Amino acid sequence: MAMHGIPLDLTMKANRNQLNMYWEIVRREEKQRFNMQASATGLGVWGDGKK
Q: What is the distance between the alpha carbons of residues 51 and 47, in angstroms, rounded to a whole number?
């Protein structure tokens, strides 16, 4: 999780519930990043639809 931006000292001392919470944060961030990249790609390929 440290490679996703969660500090190593937090993950080393975390219990199971805290690790699950951190993983959920990482998962949501990755999903949001994917949606933004897909939107930007669509905008670049098809344009904004305005003429």
A: 10
Which residue, among 9, 32, 6, has the nearest Cα to 20 in the 3D structure?
6
- Tokens coding 32: 């949001």
The answer, yes or no, to whether residue 51 has pLDDT greater than 70, is no
Contact status, residue 26 vs residue 51, Cβ threshold 8 Å: no
Give the tens place of pLDDT for each residue, 24-39.
999 999 999 999 999 9
For the entire predicted model, the pTM comes to 0.68
φ, ψ at 21 (rounded to 5°): -65, -45
Give me the numbers of helices (H) and strands (E) for the chain, helices first please: 2, 0
